Amino acid sequence: MNAATHREFKDRLFEQFARVGKALSSPKRLEIVDLLAQGERTVEEIARETAMSVASASQHLQALKAARMVEARREGLYAHYRLADEDVFRTWQAVRSLAESRLSEVDSVVEAYLVDRDALEAVDATELMERLSDGNVVVLDVRPEEEYRAGHIPGALSVPVDALEAVLQTLPRDREIIAYCRGPYCVFSDEAVALLRSRGYRAHRLRQGLPDWRAAGMPVEG
Amino acid sequence: MNAATHREFKDRLFEQFARVGKALSSPKRLEIVDLLAQGERTVEEIARETAMSVASASQHLQALKAARMVEARREGLYAHYRLADEDVFRTWQAVRSLAESRLSEVDSVVEAYLVDRDALEAVDATELMERLSDGNVVVLDVRPEEEYRAGHIPGALSVPVDALEAVLQTLPRDREIIAYCRGPYCVFSDEAVALLRSRGYRAHRLRQGLPDWRAAGMPVEG
DNA sequence: CATATATTCAACAGATTAGTTGAATAGCAT
DNA sequence: ATGCTATTCAACTAATCTGTTGAATATATG
To answer: Cα separation of A83 and A77, whole Å?
Structure first.
Protein backbone atom coordinates (compact mmCIF):
# COMPACT_ATOMS: atom_id res chain seq x y z
CA MET A 1 0.00 0.00 0.00
CA ASN A 2 1.50 3.37 -0.95
CA ALA A 3 1.54 6.31 1.40
CA ALA A 4 -1.39 8.17 -0.13
CA THR A 5 -3.58 5.09 -0.11
CA HIS A 6 -2.56 4.31 3.43
CA ARG A 7 -3.58 7.80 4.51
CA GLU A 8 -6.92 7.43 2.75
CA PHE A 9 -7.47 4.13 4.55
CA LYS A 10 -6.75 5.65 7.95
CA ASP A 11 -8.90 8.69 7.23
CA ARG A 12 -11.89 6.57 6.31
CA LEU A 13 -11.37 4.21 9.21
CA PHE A 14 -11.04 6.88 11.87
CA GLU A 15 -13.92 8.76 10.37
CA GLN A 16 -16.04 5.74 11.25
CA PHE A 17 -14.67 5.49 14.78
CA ALA A 18 -15.38 9.18 15.24
CA ARG A 19 -19.06 8.58 14.51
CA VAL A 20 -19.26 6.90 17.89
CA GLY A 21 -17.27 9.67 19.54
CA LYS A 22 -19.49 12.33 17.98
CA ALA A 23 -22.59 10.56 19.23
CA LEU A 24 -21.12 10.73 22.73
CA SER A 25 -20.01 14.35 22.47
CA SER A 26 -23.17 16.08 23.58
CA PRO A 27 -24.33 16.25 27.22
CA LYS A 28 -27.92 15.72 26.22
CA ARG A 29 -27.12 12.62 24.19
CA LEU A 30 -25.14 11.16 27.05
CA GLU A 31 -28.09 11.79 29.29
CA ILE A 32 -30.32 9.97 26.83
CA VAL A 33 -27.97 6.99 26.75
CA ASP A 34 -27.87 6.95 30.54
CA LEU A 35 -31.64 7.09 30.69
CA LEU A 36 -32.17 4.39 28.07
CA ALA A 37 -29.91 2.13 30.11
CA GLN A 38 -32.91 1.87 32.48
CA GLY A 39 -35.11 0.54 29.72
CA GLU A 40 -36.90 1.73 26.64
CA ARG A 41 -38.64 5.08 26.49
CA THR A 42 -40.83 7.03 24.11
CA VAL A 43 -39.58 10.27 22.62
CA GLU A 44 -41.89 12.24 24.86
CA GLU A 45 -40.65 10.53 28.01
CA ILE A 46 -37.07 11.17 26.99
CA ALA A 47 -37.85 14.80 26.28
CA ARG A 48 -39.48 15.22 29.67
CA GLU A 49 -36.81 13.45 31.68
CA THR A 50 -33.97 15.31 30.03
CA ALA A 51 -35.72 18.70 29.95
CA MET A 52 -35.68 19.09 26.20
CA SER A 53 -38.28 19.92 23.61
CA VAL A 54 -39.69 16.90 21.84
CA ALA A 55 -38.20 18.03 18.55
CA SER A 56 -34.81 18.37 20.10
CA ALA A 57 -35.01 14.96 21.74
CA SER A 58 -36.09 13.44 18.46
CA GLN A 59 -33.11 14.98 16.71
CA HIS A 60 -30.66 13.68 19.27
CA LEU A 61 -32.25 10.27 18.93
CA GLN A 62 -31.75 10.43 15.18
CA ALA A 63 -28.10 11.23 15.79
CA LEU A 64 -27.73 8.25 18.11
CA LYS A 65 -29.56 6.08 15.62
CA ALA A 66 -27.24 7.22 12.83
CA ALA A 67 -24.34 5.95 14.96
CA ARG A 68 -26.32 2.70 15.38
CA MET A 69 -26.33 3.14 19.14
CA VAL A 70 -30.08 3.17 19.68
CA GLU A 71 -32.93 1.41 17.95
CA ALA A 72 -36.58 2.31 17.68
CA ARG A 73 -39.64 0.14 17.84
CA ARG A 74 -42.87 1.66 16.66
CA GLU A 75 -46.06 0.78 18.47
CA GLY A 76 -49.09 2.71 17.42
CA LEU A 77 -48.40 6.38 17.85
CA TYR A 78 -45.35 5.84 19.97
CA ALA A 79 -41.75 5.24 19.01
CA HIS A 80 -40.02 3.30 21.76
CA TYR A 81 -36.28 3.82 21.78
CA ARG A 82 -33.77 1.51 23.40
CA LEU A 83 -30.01 1.04 23.48
CA ALA A 84 -28.95 -1.06 20.53
CA ASP A 85 -26.90 -3.36 22.71
CA GLU A 86 -25.09 -3.80 26.00
CA ASP A 87 -21.83 -2.54 24.49
CA VAL A 88 -23.37 0.90 24.13
CA PHE A 89 -23.80 1.08 27.86
CA ARG A 90 -20.29 -0.23 28.41
CA THR A 91 -18.86 2.48 26.19
CA TRP A 92 -20.82 5.17 28.01
CA GLN A 93 -19.56 3.64 31.24
CA ALA A 94 -15.97 3.93 30.01
CA VAL A 95 -16.47 7.59 29.12
CA ARG A 96 -18.14 8.30 32.43
CA SER A 97 -15.47 6.58 34.45
CA LEU A 98 -12.68 8.31 32.56
CA ALA A 99 -14.33 11.64 33.34
CA GLU A 100 -14.67 10.59 36.98
CA SER A 101 -11.06 9.66 37.34
CA ARG A 102 -9.49 12.45 35.30
CA LEU A 103 -11.77 15.46 35.70
CA SER A 104 -11.80 16.82 39.20
CA GLU A 105 -14.70 19.03 38.11
CA VAL A 106 -16.97 16.00 38.33
CA ASP A 107 -16.29 15.79 42.04
CA SER A 108 -16.76 19.54 42.43
CA VAL A 109 -20.17 19.36 40.84
CA VAL A 110 -21.19 16.41 42.96
CA GLU A 111 -19.99 18.09 46.12
CA ALA A 112 -21.70 21.33 45.24
CA TYR A 113 -25.10 19.73 44.83
CA LEU A 114 -24.95 16.67 47.04
CA VAL A 115 -23.59 17.91 50.31
CA ASP A 116 -21.87 15.37 52.46
CA ARG A 117 -22.49 12.51 50.16
CA ASP A 118 -19.66 10.55 51.74
CA ALA A 119 -21.71 10.35 54.90
CA LEU A 120 -24.10 8.00 53.13
CA GLU A 121 -21.28 5.47 53.08
CA ALA A 122 -21.80 3.89 49.70
CA VAL A 123 -21.45 0.15 49.35
CA ASP A 124 -19.96 -1.49 46.25
CA ALA A 125 -21.68 -4.05 44.09
CA THR A 126 -19.31 -6.86 45.07
CA GLU A 127 -19.77 -6.03 48.74
CA LEU A 128 -23.54 -6.11 48.38
CA MET A 129 -23.33 -9.37 46.46
CA GLU A 130 -21.56 -11.01 49.39
CA ARG A 131 -24.01 -9.67 51.92
CA LEU A 132 -26.94 -10.77 49.81
CA SER A 133 -26.07 -14.40 50.39
CA ASP A 134 -25.82 -13.78 54.15
CA GLY A 135 -29.40 -12.60 53.84
CA ASN A 136 -29.05 -10.05 56.59
CA VAL A 137 -29.67 -7.05 54.45
CA VAL A 138 -32.75 -5.41 52.91
CA VAL A 139 -32.29 -4.04 49.41
CA LEU A 140 -34.54 -1.23 48.21
CA ASP A 141 -34.99 -0.31 44.57
CA VAL A 142 -36.00 3.33 44.83
CA ARG A 143 -36.48 3.93 41.11
CA PRO A 144 -39.92 4.37 39.56
CA GLU A 145 -41.80 1.11 39.77
CA GLU A 146 -41.76 0.59 36.02
CA GLU A 147 -37.99 0.45 36.02
CA TYR A 148 -38.06 -2.08 38.83
CA ARG A 149 -40.36 -4.22 36.69
CA ALA A 150 -37.91 -4.03 33.78
CA GLY A 151 -35.25 -5.68 35.96
CA HIS A 152 -33.93 -5.41 39.50
CA ILE A 153 -31.48 -6.88 41.97
CA PRO A 154 -32.79 -10.28 43.12
CA GLY A 155 -34.79 -9.93 46.30
CA ALA A 156 -34.95 -6.14 46.16
CA LEU A 157 -38.18 -4.41 47.14
CA SER A 158 -39.66 -1.79 44.85
CA VAL A 159 -40.01 1.38 46.91
CA PRO A 160 -40.03 4.44 44.69
CA VAL A 161 -38.55 7.21 46.74
CA ASP A 162 -41.87 9.09 46.91
CA ALA A 163 -43.53 6.02 48.38
CA LEU A 164 -40.85 5.43 50.99
CA GLU A 165 -42.45 7.49 53.74
CA ALA A 166 -45.63 5.42 53.48
CA VAL A 167 -43.96 2.02 53.80
CA LEU A 168 -41.39 3.01 56.38
CA GLN A 169 -42.96 1.10 59.26
CA THR A 170 -43.04 -2.16 57.33
CA LEU A 171 -39.23 -2.14 57.13
CA PRO A 172 -37.35 -4.17 59.73
CA ARG A 173 -35.41 -2.00 62.14
CA ASP A 174 -32.87 -4.64 62.97
CA ARG A 175 -31.48 -5.15 59.50
CA GLU A 176 -29.26 -2.98 57.40
CA ILE A 177 -30.96 -1.32 54.45
CA ILE A 178 -29.26 -0.68 51.13
CA ALA A 179 -30.92 1.58 48.59
CA TYR A 180 -30.02 1.67 44.93
CA CYS A 181 -31.04 3.73 42.01
CA ARG A 182 -30.35 4.44 38.34
CA GLY A 183 -26.66 5.08 38.49
CA PRO A 184 -23.83 6.52 40.54
CA TYR A 185 -25.22 10.05 40.21
CA CYS A 186 -28.87 9.27 40.69
CA VAL A 187 -30.06 11.12 43.78
CA PHE A 188 -33.13 9.03 44.62
CA SER A 189 -31.03 6.67 46.71
CA ASP A 190 -29.34 9.58 48.47
CA GLU A 191 -32.72 10.90 49.46
CA ALA A 192 -33.95 7.50 50.54
CA VAL A 193 -30.91 6.87 52.72
CA ALA A 194 -31.18 10.33 54.28
CA LEU A 195 -34.84 9.75 55.15
CA LEU A 196 -34.19 6.27 56.50
CA ARG A 197 -31.37 7.47 58.70
CA SER A 198 -33.40 10.35 60.04
CA ARG A 199 -35.85 7.74 61.27
CA GLY A 200 -33.21 5.67 62.93
CA TYR A 201 -32.59 2.97 60.33
CA ARG A 202 -29.12 1.82 59.41
CA ALA A 203 -29.08 2.62 55.72
CA HIS A 204 -26.47 2.81 52.94
CA ARG A 205 -26.36 3.74 49.32
CA LEU A 206 -25.27 1.29 46.62
CA ARG A 207 -22.58 3.10 44.68
CA GLN A 208 -23.58 1.72 41.31
CA GLY A 209 -26.95 1.73 39.61
CA LEU A 210 -28.80 -1.20 38.16
CA PRO A 211 -27.27 -0.93 34.66
CA ASP A 212 -23.79 -1.03 36.19
CA TRP A 213 -24.80 -3.99 38.33
CA ARG A 214 -26.05 -5.80 35.24
CA ALA A 215 -22.98 -4.91 33.16
CA ALA A 216 -20.76 -6.26 35.93
CA GLY A 217 -22.37 -9.63 35.33
CA MET A 218 -24.38 -9.63 38.56
CA PRO A 219 -27.74 -11.44 38.55
CA VAL A 220 -30.84 -9.49 37.57
CA GLU A 221 -34.37 -10.59 38.32
CA GLY A 222 -37.66 -9.87 36.56
CA MET B 1 -33.49 18.94 45.91
CA ASN B 2 -36.13 20.78 43.87
CA ALA B 3 -36.67 20.10 40.18
CA ALA B 4 -34.82 23.17 38.91
CA THR B 5 -31.78 22.46 41.05
CA HIS B 6 -31.84 18.83 40.05
CA ARG B 7 -31.81 19.85 36.40
CA GLU B 8 -28.91 22.21 37.00
CA PHE B 9 -27.01 19.40 38.71
CA LYS B 10 -27.54 17.03 35.81
CA ASP B 11 -26.66 19.68 33.25
CA ARG B 12 -23.35 20.45 34.94
CA LEU B 13 -22.56 16.80 35.48
CA PHE B 14 -23.24 15.69 31.94
CA GLU B 15 -21.43 18.71 30.61
CA GLN B 16 -18.35 17.28 32.29
CA PHE B 17 -18.89 13.80 30.90
CA ALA B 18 -19.33 15.31 27.46
CA ARG B 19 -15.85 16.82 27.66
CA VAL B 20 -14.51 13.31 27.26
CA GLY B 21 -16.94 12.56 24.45
CA LYS B 22 -16.02 15.76 22.65
CA ALA B 23 -12.34 14.91 22.90
CA LEU B 24 -13.13 11.62 21.18
CA SER B 25 -15.37 13.11 18.52
CA SER B 26 -12.76 13.98 15.91
CA PRO B 27 -11.08 11.40 13.66
CA LYS B 28 -7.74 13.14 13.98
CA ARG B 29 -7.87 13.19 17.76
CA LEU B 30 -8.72 9.52 17.85
CA GLU B 31 -5.77 8.88 15.61
CA ILE B 32 -3.56 10.83 17.99
CA VAL B 33 -4.80 8.79 20.95
CA ASP B 34 -4.18 5.59 19.02
CA LEU B 35 -0.70 6.75 18.14
CA LEU B 36 0.18 7.87 21.66
CA ALA B 37 -0.82 4.43 22.89
CA GLN B 38 2.48 3.30 21.33
CA GLY B 39 4.43 5.71 23.49
CA GLU B 40 5.14 9.39 23.74
CA ARG B 41 5.67 11.58 20.71
CA THR B 42 6.63 15.14 19.93
CA VAL B 43 4.15 17.45 18.24
CA GLU B 44 6.07 17.22 15.02
CA GLU B 45 6.07 13.43 15.03
CA ILE B 46 2.35 13.41 15.68
CA ALA B 47 1.77 15.88 12.88
CA ARG B 48 3.80 13.78 10.46
CA GLU B 49 2.25 10.44 11.38
CA THR B 50 -1.30 11.74 11.20
CA ALA B 51 -0.78 13.89 8.10
CA MET B 52 -1.62 17.18 9.75
CA SER B 53 0.06 20.55 9.93
CA VAL B 54 2.00 21.10 13.13
CA ALA B 55 -0.36 23.89 14.18
CA SER B 56 -3.34 21.64 13.69
CA ALA B 57 -1.74 18.81 15.65
CA SER B 58 -0.88 21.21 18.43
CA GLN B 59 -4.46 22.40 18.63
CA HIS B 60 -5.84 18.89 18.80
CA LEU B 61 -3.34 18.15 21.52
CA GLN B 62 -4.55 21.18 23.44
CA ALA B 63 -8.09 19.86 23.12
CA LEU B 64 -7.03 16.46 24.46
CA LYS B 65 -5.10 18.15 27.23
CA ALA B 66 -8.15 20.23 28.16
CA ALA B 67 -10.02 16.96 28.65
CA ARG B 68 -7.05 15.79 30.76
CA MET B 69 -6.50 12.86 28.42
CA VAL B 70 -2.92 13.62 27.44
CA GLU B 71 -0.04 15.21 29.29
CA ALA B 72 3.02 17.00 27.99
CA ARG B 73 6.59 16.89 29.15
CA ARG B 74 8.88 19.62 27.90
CA GLU B 75 12.44 18.70 27.10
CA GLY B 76 14.48 21.42 25.47
CA LEU B 77 12.73 22.53 22.33
CA TYR B 78 10.45 19.53 22.25
CA ALA B 79 7.14 18.89 23.92
CA HIS B 80 6.64 15.17 24.42
CA TYR B 81 3.02 14.18 24.67
CA ARG B 82 1.73 10.96 26.20
CA LEU B 83 -1.60 9.48 27.24
CA ALA B 84 -2.46 10.65 30.73
CA ASP B 85 -3.23 7.13 31.88
CA GLU B 86 -4.15 3.62 30.86
CA ASP B 87 -7.88 4.39 31.18
CA VAL B 88 -7.61 6.75 28.24
CA PHE B 89 -6.59 3.86 26.04
CA ARG B 90 -9.33 1.67 27.49
CA THR B 91 -11.94 4.29 26.66
CA TRP B 92 -10.64 4.63 23.12
CA GLN B 93 -10.72 0.84 22.94
CA ALA B 94 -14.37 0.85 23.99
CA VAL B 95 -15.25 3.40 21.32
CA ARG B 96 -13.30 1.50 18.70
CA SER B 97 -14.86 -1.81 19.57
CA LEU B 98 -18.36 -0.35 19.63
CA ALA B 99 -17.76 1.03 16.15
CA GLU B 100 -16.43 -2.35 15.04
CA SER B 101 -19.42 -4.24 16.29
CA ARG B 102 -22.16 -1.80 15.33
CA LEU B 103 -20.93 -0.03 12.19
CA SER B 104 -20.68 -2.32 9.23
CA GLU B 105 -18.90 0.51 7.44
CA VAL B 106 -15.78 -0.31 9.42
CA ASP B 107 -15.68 -3.71 7.77
CA SER B 108 -16.36 -2.20 4.37
CA VAL B 109 -13.42 0.14 4.72
CA VAL B 110 -11.13 -2.64 5.88
CA GLU B 111 -12.23 -4.89 3.05
CA ALA B 112 -11.83 -2.14 0.50
CA TYR B 113 -8.22 -1.43 1.43
CA LEU B 114 -6.97 -4.71 2.85
CA VAL B 115 -8.04 -7.30 0.35
CA ASP B 116 -8.42 -10.80 1.65
CA ARG B 117 -7.33 -9.95 5.15
CA ASP B 118 -9.06 -13.07 6.47
CA ALA B 119 -6.51 -15.13 4.61
CA LEU B 120 -3.86 -13.96 7.06
CA GLU B 121 -5.68 -15.96 9.72
CA ALA B 122 -5.32 -13.68 12.69
CA VAL B 123 -4.53 -15.18 16.06
CA ASP B 124 -5.97 -13.83 19.30
CA ALA B 125 -3.93 -12.63 22.26
CA THR B 126 -5.08 -15.47 24.51
CA GLU B 127 -4.25 -17.99 21.83
CA LEU B 128 -0.77 -16.53 21.40
CA MET B 129 -0.27 -16.47 25.15
CA GLU B 130 -0.87 -20.21 25.30
CA ARG B 131 1.44 -20.94 22.41
CA LEU B 132 4.15 -18.75 23.90
CA SER B 133 4.60 -21.15 26.76
CA ASP B 134 4.84 -24.08 24.32
CA GLY B 135 7.76 -22.15 22.86
CA ASN B 136 7.14 -23.39 19.37
CA VAL B 137 6.35 -20.05 17.87
CA VAL B 138 8.40 -17.05 16.77
CA VAL B 139 6.90 -13.66 17.53
CA LEU B 140 7.87 -10.67 15.39
CA ASP B 141 7.32 -7.08 16.44
CA VAL B 142 7.15 -5.33 13.09
CA ARG B 143 6.72 -1.80 14.45
CA PRO B 144 9.50 0.78 14.26
CA GLU B 145 12.31 -0.25 16.54
CA GLU B 146 11.76 2.62 18.93
CA GLU B 147 8.29 1.34 19.75
CA TYR B 148 9.70 -2.11 20.37
CA ARG B 149 12.10 -0.56 22.84
CA ALA B 150 9.24 1.16 24.65
CA GLY B 151 7.69 -2.24 25.37
CA HIS B 152 7.02 -5.49 23.54
CA ILE B 153 5.68 -8.99 23.94
CA PRO B 154 8.19 -11.06 25.94
CA GLY B 155 10.53 -12.91 23.62
CA ALA B 156 9.44 -11.06 20.50
CA LEU B 157 12.07 -10.06 17.95
CA SER B 158 12.18 -6.50 16.69
CA VAL B 159 11.88 -6.67 12.91
CA PRO B 160 10.51 -3.41 11.52
CA VAL B 161 8.62 -4.35 8.40
CA ASP B 162 11.15 -2.59 6.13
CA ALA B 163 13.93 -4.65 7.62
CA LEU B 164 12.12 -7.95 7.26
CA GLU B 165 13.43 -8.79 3.82
CA ALA B 166 17.02 -8.50 5.08
CA VAL B 167 16.62 -10.83 8.05
CA LEU B 168 14.40 -13.37 6.36
CA GLN B 169 16.99 -16.12 6.15
CA THR B 170 17.74 -15.94 9.86
CA LEU B 171 14.17 -16.99 10.66
CA PRO B 172 13.53 -20.68 11.34
CA ARG B 173 11.49 -22.33 8.59
CA ASP B 174 10.13 -25.03 10.83
CA ARG B 175 8.35 -22.81 13.32
CA GLU B 176 5.23 -20.79 13.02
CA ILE B 177 5.73 -17.04 12.88
CA ILE B 178 3.33 -14.55 14.39
CA ALA B 179 3.72 -10.89 13.53
CA TYR B 180 2.17 -8.07 15.51
CA CYS B 181 1.90 -4.38 15.16
CA ARG B 182 0.34 -1.23 16.60
CA GLY B 183 -3.26 -2.24 16.66
CA PRO B 184 -5.96 -4.22 14.90
CA TYR B 185 -5.86 -1.91 11.89
CA CYS B 186 -2.13 -1.50 11.61
CA VAL B 187 -1.04 -2.83 8.25
CA PHE B 188 2.62 -3.51 8.99
CA SER B 189 1.81 -6.98 10.24
CA ASP B 190 -0.36 -7.66 7.20
CA GLU B 191 2.55 -6.82 4.98
CA ALA B 192 4.97 -8.85 7.03
CA VAL B 193 2.75 -11.93 6.97
CA ALA B 194 2.17 -11.58 3.22
CA LEU B 195 5.91 -11.39 2.58
CA LEU B 196 6.68 -14.29 4.91
CA ARG B 197 4.07 -16.47 3.27
CA SER B 198 5.29 -15.66 -0.19
CA ARG B 199 8.64 -17.06 0.89
CA GLY B 200 7.17 -20.22 2.23
CA TYR B 201 6.97 -19.48 5.93
CA ARG B 202 3.95 -20.36 8.01
CA ALA B 203 2.97 -16.92 9.28
CA HIS B 204 -0.02 -15.37 11.04
CA ARG B 205 -1.10 -11.96 12.19
CA LEU B 206 -1.83 -11.17 15.83
CA ARG B 207 -5.28 -9.61 15.82
CA GLN B 208 -4.51 -7.10 18.57
CA GLY B 209 -1.71 -4.60 18.81
CA LEU B 210 0.69 -4.12 21.67
CA PRO B 211 -1.47 -1.60 23.55
CA ASP B 212 -4.38 -4.03 23.48
CA TRP B 213 -2.09 -6.80 24.64
CA ARG B 214 -0.95 -4.65 27.54
CA ALA B 215 -4.47 -3.50 28.42
CA ALA B 216 -5.59 -7.14 28.52
CA GLY B 217 -3.13 -7.63 31.35
CA MET B 218 -0.67 -9.69 29.31
CA PRO B 219 3.01 -9.41 30.21
CA VAL B 220 5.09 -6.73 28.53
CA GLU B 221 8.87 -6.71 28.40
CA GLY B 222 11.37 -3.85 28.12
C1' DC C 1 23.70 38.85 21.19
C1' DA C 2 21.69 36.95 16.77
C1' DT C 3 19.76 32.99 14.73
C1' DA C 4 17.33 28.73 14.24
C1' DT C 5 13.78 25.56 15.59
C1' DA C 6 9.64 23.57 18.04
C1' DT C 7 5.59 24.84 19.71
C1' DT C 8 1.76 27.73 20.76
C1' DC C 9 -1.33 31.48 19.98
C1' DA C 10 -4.60 34.59 17.47
C1' DA C 11 -7.43 35.70 13.81
C1' DC C 12 -9.97 34.25 10.17
C1' DA C 13 -13.16 31.39 6.75
C1' DG C 14 -15.88 27.50 6.01
C1' DA C 15 -18.28 23.68 7.85
C1' DT C 16 -20.90 21.53 11.33
C1' DT C 17 -23.94 21.43 15.28
C1' DA C 18 -27.78 22.57 18.66
C1' DG C 19 -31.97 24.39 19.52
C1' DT C 20 -36.36 26.72 17.92
C1' DT C 21 -40.43 27.07 15.34
C1' DG C 22 -43.84 25.57 12.42
C1' DA C 23 -45.27 22.30 9.01
C1' DA C 24 -45.66 17.41 7.46
C1' DT C 25 -46.49 12.58 8.43
C1' DA C 26 -48.49 8.59 10.51
C1' DG C 27 -51.51 6.08 13.22
C1' DC C 28 -55.36 5.96 16.48
C1' DA C 29 -60.27 7.25 17.91
C1' DT C 30 -64.70 8.78 16.80
C1' DA D 1 -63.55 11.11 6.64
C1' DT D 2 -62.28 14.30 10.79
C1' DG D 3 -59.88 15.30 14.49
C1' DC D 4 -56.17 14.21 17.78
C1' DT D 5 -51.60 13.03 19.12
C1' DA D 6 -46.66 11.45 18.74
C1' DT D 7 -43.04 11.93 16.00
C1' DT D 8 -40.27 13.59 12.33
C1' DC D 9 -38.77 16.93 9.03
C1' DA D 10 -37.29 21.47 7.13
C1' DA D 11 -35.72 25.99 7.57
C1' DC D 12 -33.47 29.12 10.16
C1' DT D 13 -30.18 31.33 13.68
C1' DA D 14 -26.59 31.27 16.90
C1' DA D 15 -22.81 28.92 18.48
C1' DT D 16 -18.99 25.87 18.00
C1' DC D 17 -15.36 23.41 15.57
C1' DT D 18 -11.57 22.61 12.07
C1' DG D 19 -7.90 23.88 9.50
C1' DT D 20 -4.98 27.64 7.65
C1' DT D 21 -1.90 31.36 7.98
C1' DG D 22 1.26 34.20 10.11
C1' DA D 23 2.88 36.07 14.33
C1' DA D 24 4.50 35.26 19.11
C1' DT D 25 6.98 32.57 22.52
C1' DA D 26 10.46 29.69 24.34
C1' DT D 27 14.62 27.32 24.18
C1' DA D 28 18.53 25.86 22.14
C1' DT D 29 23.12 27.00 19.44
C1' DG D 30 26.92 29.83 17.45
So the answer is: 20
Most A-contacting residue of B5, B12, B16 (CB-CB within 10 A), to test interface: B16
- Burial (CB count <10 Å: 0-12, 13-18, 19+), residue B112: exposed
Q: Do B94 and A91 touch (CB under 8 A)?
A: yes
Query: Separation of CA B75 and C1' C3 in angstroms?
Result: 20
Q: What is the pLDDT of residues A46-89, one digit of tens each?
A: 999 999 999 999 999 999 999 999 999 999 999 999 999 999 99
The CATH code for residues A3-89 is 1.10.10.10
The residues of chain B that CATH labels 3.40.250.10 are: 110-215
CATH topology of domain A107-215: Oxidized Rhodanese; domain 1 (3.40.250)
| Radius of gyration (C-alpha) of chain A in whole angstroms | 20
Residues of chain A with CATH 1.10.10.10: 3-89
This model of the complex carries an ipTM of: 0.96
What is the number of helices (H) and of strands (E) in chain A?
A: 11, 7
Q: Which residues of chain B have pLDDT under 70?
A: none
Angle at A88 (CA atoms; ends A70, A185), nearest 5 degrees: 105
Nucleotide nearest residue B52, measured CA to C1' = D19
Q: Does domain B110-215 have CATH number 3.40.250.10?
A: yes
Residue nearest to nucleotide C5 (CA to C1'): B77
Q: Where are the beta strands (DSSP E) in B32-134?
A: 41-42, 70-75, 78-83
The CA distances from residue B16 to A30, A108, B20, in Å, are: 11, 11, 7
Closest partner residue to A16 (CB to CB) among B9, B17, B106 is: B106
Task: Write out pLDDT tens, residues B3-13.
Answer: 899 999 999 99
Q: Residue A64: what pLDDT?
A: 98
